[in-house]
Automatic annotation (TrEMBL):
SUPFAM superfamilies for the chain: Multidrug efflux transporter AcrB transmembrane domain
Record-level GO cellular component terms: plasma membrane
Topology class, membrane: Multi-pass membrane protein
Protein name (database record): RND family transporter
Organism: Methanolobus vulcani
Chief subcellular location: membrane
Record-annotated SSD domain positions: 221-338, 608-734
Regions crossing the membrane: 187-206, 213-233, 239-257, 287-310, 316-339, 390-407, 584-602, 609-628, 634-654, 683-705, 711-735
Keywords: Cell membrane, Membrane, Transmembrane, Transmembrane helix
Length: 769
C-alpha cells in the first residue's frame, strides 16, 4: 500500500520534469563566464531568431513577395516577437518613397530595381532565396519560444505561398525545440528497449530461481520513484541525464537479483519463510548496502565537474540507486515472501522437493545435493587458475593497465556539439542548409565599458581594431558595431566631437540603438567567425579568442576602457577544460572516495584496498580500449572513470563479502575463494549481464553522444566482470595469505618472547636463593 501511494506521488512529480538543451546545460550559471554572458550580453543585447527561408526558381516574383508580406503582417502580431525583418518590408518602404503607396508592386522590373538598389544581401542572398527573420528577446523562455515557433508555422501555412516554392522554418530556437522533442521520443524508446533486453537476459540466465522475471518490475518501481524525485527536485532532462535511466535499470536490477537469489538459496536449505527473509536481510542486506554506498561514493565525484548536465547525471544516479535499493529491500523481499506463501497454499510440493507432514510447519527438504552446472564449474575453474598463476595474471593485467593509462592521455576530445545529435534529424539538416546559404553566424561578442560611449577616440579605436581583426585573422569574417551606424550617418567618417556623435545616437531608432548601445557606458562589438563551431571546433575557437585577447593587449584601448569577451561560443569553450582536466580529477577523486569509504566501513586495509586495486585495473584497460578503437571523449564519456568505480566495485565487494563469510566458517583462502566464486558468482554474472544488457539499450540511441557512451560502458562492465573473476581472486588471496603469515609470525614472536621472560625469571630466583 505504501509503495502504491509512493507510485501515485511519483507520477505527480514526473509531470514537473522539464527539458534542457541550452547553454546552461554546459556551463554553471554561477560561474563568472556565464554571469558575463547572461548579464552583460544576453540580457542587454542578446536575441534569438527564427528564420523563415524561401527557396524557389525566382524569389523576386510579385506573388511570392505578397505571400511573404502576408506572413510578415501575421507574425509581427505574435506576442513575444520583438521584430520581424523581411524582403517585403524593404520593397514596400522603397516603393512608398517612390510612389507614396506602401505595397508590393506588380511590375517585376520595378521590383528588380528596388532589390538592386536597396535590398540587403542578408534578406535576399540571391534570386533563389529570400530570408525572413523573427526576432525574440535572448531571455525568452523555452515555452514562449515554442509558442512563437508554432504560431510562425501557422502563419506561414495561412499566407498561401505559391505551390512551387519550398518554405523552411529553421534557426537555433527551432533546432533546440526539435531536439527536445527528439530527446523525449528517444527516452521512451531507450526505456522500452532496456526493459525488453532485461526480460531476455533474466529469462536466459536467472532460470535457477522461481519467478525469474520478478526483479524487473521491482526495479521499474524504483525507476518510477526516481522520475518523481527528479520532478520534485527540479532536475531537468538533458542529452546526458536521459541516459541515466537505462543505466539505473542495469544497476538497480542487480540489487533485486541479489535479494532474490539469496532468499531462494535460504529457502532451498529448508528454513521457514520468516527465517529465509531474516537470513537474507542479515547477510545480503549489509553487503548490498555497502556496495550501494561505495557506488554512490564513486558517483559523487561527478559533482566536481563544471558541466551542469554531468552534475545532474550524478544526482540522478545517486537518487536512482537509492530508490532501486529501497524498492528491492522492502517491496522485492515482501513480494517474494508473499509469493512463496501463496505457492505453498496452492501447490502441495515442488519438483525435486517434498514437504513434512501437515502437522508441522512447512519446510523445504533437499532430496539430493545440488549438482554444479556449467557456469558454476567455469567460474570455479577461472578463479582457481588465476589463483594458481597469480604472478603471471597480475603482471599481464598490470602491464595492460599502465599502458592503458598512458594511452588515455592520447584520446581525442569531441567538441562539435552538433555531432552529438542525430545527423539525419530534419531540423539539423535545415539548420546546416541555412548555414550553407547564408554563411555561419557564430560570434565573439566584446562588451566594451567606458565612461562615455560617445567618445570619438573610443569609436576610432573600435573601428581600427575591427578592421585589424577582419583583415589579419582568417577565421574572423566580419564585424558589426555602432561605429558602422555612425559612419553610415556621417558620410563614412567618425565625427570629431562627442556632441555630434550623441546627435547621431539621438536620431537612431530604438532598434538600431538597442542593438549596440546600453545606456551611456556600454557598447557591443560583434566579431563574426562564420561556421567556426563546425570548421575549427571549440578548441579552435578557444585559440582564436586567445589571439583576440592578445590583440586587445597590444592595441591598447583608450584609458578607462574595460573589455569583456563573451557570447555563446565562449561559453561552450569552457567545456574543453571540463573534459580535459576535469575528467582526470574526477577519476582520482572517485578512487580516493571509494578507498576512504571502504576503510571507514570495514576498518580493514585489506578489505579497503582489494576492490580499489581491482577497479583501477579496469580504469586503465578502459583508457586503452578507447584509444585503440579511435573513440573520443564527450561530456558523457568523461564520466566513465567514476562509473567504472561505482559499478565495478560493487561486484568486487559482493565477492569479497562472500569470501570472508566462507573464511569465517573455517575455509582456507583458496577454498573460500572457490566457494565464493560458485555461490555468489552466478548472481554476479547474472546482475552483470543484466547491467550489460541495460547499457546496451544506449547503443540504439539516435544521439551519438549517448550511443558512444553505451558502447564504452558495455565494454567497461564486461571488463569489470572479467576483473572480478580473474584479477580479484589472486589479489585478495595473496594479500590475505600475506596477512595470515605476518599474524602467525607475530604470534610466534610473542610466544618466544614470553618463554624467554619465564627462563630469565627462574634464573633470577635461583641466584637470589
Amino acid at each position: 500500500m505504501i509503495a502504491l501511494l509512493l507510485i501515485i506521488i511519483s507520477f505527480q512529480g514526473a509531470q514537473l520534469i522539464g527539458m534542457a538543451s541550452g547553454t546552461d546545460t554546459f556551463v554553471d550559471k554561477n560561474s563568472k563566464l556565464y554571469q558575463d554572458y547572461d548579464h552583460l550580453y544576453l540580457n542587454l543585447f542578446g536575441t534569438e531568431s527564427i528564420v523563415v527561408m524561401v527557396e524557389g526558381s525566382d524569389v523576386t516574383d510579385p506573388e511570392l513577395l505578397k505571400a511573404l508580406d502576408r506572413a510578415y503582417l501575421s507574425i509581427q502580431k505574435i506576442p513575444g516577437v520583438v521584430e520581424v525583418t523581411s524582403p517585403s518590408t524593404v520593397i514596400k518602404e522603397v516603393n512608398y518613397q517612390m510612389t507614396g503607396r506602401s505595397i508590393i508592386p506588380d511590375d517585376p522590373e520595378t521590383i528588380d530595381g528596388i532589390i538592386t538598389s536597396a535590398m540587403p544581401s542578408a534578406l535576399m542572398p540571391d534570386d533563389t532565396h529570400a530570408i525572413m527573420s523573427v526576432v525574440m528577446e535572448g531571455t525568452t523562455s523555452d515555452a514562449t519560444q515554442e509558442d512563437i515557433l508554432r504560431e510562425t508555422e501557422s502563419s506561414i501555412e495561412l499566407a498561401n505561398f505559391p505551390a512551387d516554392y519550398n518554405i523552411i522554418v529553421t534557426g537555433d530556437p527551432a533546432f533546440m525545440i526539435a531536439m527536445n522533442d527528439e530527446m523525449t521520443t528517444s527516452m521512451g524508446m531507450l526505456l522500452s528497449l532496456s526493459v525488453l533486453l532485461m526480460i531476455i537476459v533474466l529469462y536466459l540466465v536467472f532460470k535457477h530461481v522461481r519467478w525469474r522475471l520478478l526483479p524487473l518490475p521491482i526495479v521499474l518501481v524504483g525507476i518510477i520513484f526516481t522520475f518523481g524525485a527528479m520532478g520534485f527536485l527540479d532536475i531537468p532532462m538533458s542529452m546526458v541525464s536521459m541516459s541515466a535511466f537505462p543505466v539505473l535499470i542495469g544497476l538497480g536490477i542487480d540489487y533485486a537479483i541479489q535479494f532474490h537469489n539469496r532468499i531462494e538459496e535460504e529457502l532451498a536449505r529448508g528454513v521457514s519463510d520468516e527465517e529465509a527473509v531474516i537470513d537474507t536481510i542479515k547477510h545480503t542486506g549489509p553487503a548490498v548496502l555497502i556496495a550501494l554506498i561505495i557506488t554512490a561514493l564513486g558517483f559523487f565525484s561527478l559533482f566536481t565537474s563544471t558541466v551542469p548536465m554531468i552534475q545532474d547525471f550524478g544526482k540522478l544516479l545517486m537518487i536512482g540507486i537509492a530508490m532501486c535499493f529501497l524498492s528491492s529491500l522492502f517491496l522485492g523481499v515482501t513480494v517474494l515472501y508473499g509469493f512463496d506463501k501463496i505457492s505453498k497454499l496452492n501447490i502441495p510440493g515442488r519438483l525435486g522437493l517434498k514437504k513434512k507432514s501437515a502437522h508441522h510447519e512447512t519446510h523445504i527438504i533437499i532430496d539430493e545435493e545440488h549438482e554444479a552446472d556449467f557456469l558454476e564449474k567455469a567460474l570455479k575453474g577461472i578463479s582457481t587458475f588465476s589463483m594458481r598463476n597469480a604472478f603471471l595474471v597480475l603482471f599481464i593485467a598490470g602491464s595492460l593497465c599502465v599502458g592503458g593509462l598512458y594511452a588515455d592521455n592520447l584520446v581525442g576530445i569531441q567538441t562539435d556539439t552538433q555531432t552529438f545529435v542525430p545527423q539525419d534529424m530534419p531540423s539539423l539538416l535545415e539548420l546546416k542548409h541555412m548555414g550553407n546559404i547564408l554563411g555561419g553566424d557564430d560570434q565573439l561578442n566584446l562588451i566594451i565599458k567606458s565612461g562615455d560611449n560617445a567618445d570619438p577616440e573610443l569609436l576610432k579605436w573600435i573601428d581600427e581594431f575591427s578592421e585589424h581583426e577582419v583583415d589579419g585573422r582568417s577565421h574572423i569574417q566580419g564585424s558589426s558595431s555602432i561605429v558602422d551606424v555612425v559612419k553610415a550617418a556621417n558620410s563614412g567618417e567618425i565625427p570629431d566631437s562627442s556632441e555630434k556623435i550623441q546627435d547621431i545616437y539621438d536620431q537612431l531608432s530604438d532598434r538600431e540603438r538597442d542593438a549596440y548601445l546600453e545606456g551611456s557606458t556600454i557598447i557591443l562589438l560583434n566579431l563574426n567567425i562564420g561556421n567556426a563551431m563546425t570548421d575549427i571546433g571549440l578548441e579552435g575557437i578557444e585559440s582564436l579568442s586567445n589571439i583576440v585577447e592578445e590583440d586587445i593587449y597590444w592595441m591598447t584601448p583608450p584609458p578607462g576602457v574595460h573589455i569583456t569577451m563573451t557570447g555563446n561560443s565562449m561559453v561552450y569553450v569552457a567545456v574543453i577544460s571540463a573534459l580535459t582536466s576535469g575528467r582526470v580529477f574526477m577519476t582520482m577523486l572517485g578512487i580516493v572516495l571509494v578507498f576512504a569509504g571502504l576503510l571507514v566501513i570495514y576498518r580493514d586495509i585489506l578489505k579497503a584496498l582489494t576492490p580499489v586495486l581491482t577497479m583501477v585495473m579496469v580504469v586503465g584497460w578502459s583508457g586503452g580500449f578507447m584509444y585503440y578503437t579511435g573513440m573520443e571523449y564527450t561530456p558523457m564519456t568523461a564520466t566513465l572513470g567514476a562509473l567504472i568505480l561505482g559499478v565495478g566495485s560493487e561486484y568486487a565487494i559482493l565477492m569479497m563479502e562472500r569470501y570472508f563469510e566462507e573464511r569465517d566458517k573455517g575455509a582456507d583462502p583458496e577454498e573460500a575463494m572457490q566457494e565464493a566464486s560458485v555461490k555468489i558468482g552466478k548472481a554476479i554474472v547474472t546482475s552483470g549481464l543484466t547491467t550489460v544488457f541495460g547499457f546496451s539499450a544506449l547503443i540504439a540511441s539516435p544521439f551519438s553522444i549517448t550511443s558512444n557512451f553505451g558502447v564504452i560502458t558495455v565494454m567497461d562492465v564486461v571488463l569489470a566482470l572479467l576483473a572480478t573473476f580473474v584479477i580479484f581472486p589472486p589479489i585478495i588471496v595473496t594479500l590475505d595469505k600475506f596477512r595470515e603469515k605476518r599474524r602467525h609470525l607475530h604470534q610466534s614472536h610473542n610466544k618466544s618472547g614470553s618463554g624467554g621472560s619465564n627462563i630469565l625469571k627462574s634464573i633470577q630466583e635461583a641466584i637470589t636463593q
